[in-house]
Amino acid sequence: xxxxxxxxxxxxxxxxxxxxxxxxxxxxxxxxxxxxxxxxxxxxxxxxxxxxxxxxxxxxxxxxxxxxxxxxxxxxxxxxxxxxxxxxxxxxxxxxxxxxxxxxxxxxxxxxxxxxxxxxxxxxxxxxxxxxxxxxxxxxxxxxxxxxxxxxxxxxxxxxxxxxxxxxxxxxxxxxxxxxxxxxxxxxxxxxxxxxxxxxxxxxxxxxxxxxxxxxxxxxxxxxxxxxxxxxxxxxxxxxxxxxxxxxxxxxxxxxxxxxxxxxxxxxxxxxxxxxxxxxx
Length: 281
What we know:
Elements: E1 5-11, H1 18-34, E2 39-41, H2 52-55, H3 75-87, E3 90-99, E4 106-113, E5 119-124, E6 130-132, E7 138-140, E8 153-156, E9 159-163, H4 172-180, E10 185-187, H5 194-212, E11 215-218, E12 222-226, E13 229-232, E14 235-238, E15 244-248, E16 253-259, H6 261-270
Parallel strand pairs: 1-2, 2-3, 9-10, 10-11
Antiparallel strand pairs: 1-16, 3-4, 4-5, 6-7, 8-9, 11-14, 12-13, 14-15
């Protein structure tokens, strides 16, 4: 039975320092749990944001979902599992650096850990960020990352959560598929650049909330991460009507809001746009 659930979005500035990043994530997650959060969401690349050559050393496999035995978790996942058990919270790892069969590439994976630390769901980022901006920013995620193929949802106390990662937000059809699979809330853990964030972050997140009539929770990276890489921040939670419920513009910290299944039902009943969709040929 779905119910109102306090949900937190963590904002941090990850660097190549894995231990420092995890200590920040642990500290903020503990504070969010003390504030009553039952679900805690971390941003993309929460454990490492730095040179690709260094990232290879921190890649880890994920154990099979729902199986007691199998792949032994690596040190990053073990710390995250311990954090979930300590806080007794559902923990969404916004962008986990998962190893792949290709020795030259990895997956960018959004992971749901249950309060007992077990793996509930894993979504591999489908849309990869390949861009060249006028300010000189050039990123080629596809050069070192394999795209996922599956649309993934997972169960939480408030209902069904649709999983996505960062650049996915620009592709509305993904979120329509998530809604078709029962999603009433969407997570968009991100490391938006300062340039693209200032131009598009708020309007994209509010648009997905409005058209999907779902809550959107977007934990974000902020600040100078490494080299020329700077992230936009502005972690945000949006309700199904498109209103911003909470936002953290800058700095490390967290925001939270109560995800209310009743509000979702009210909006979808009063303005039944999801029922009015038609297939176009």
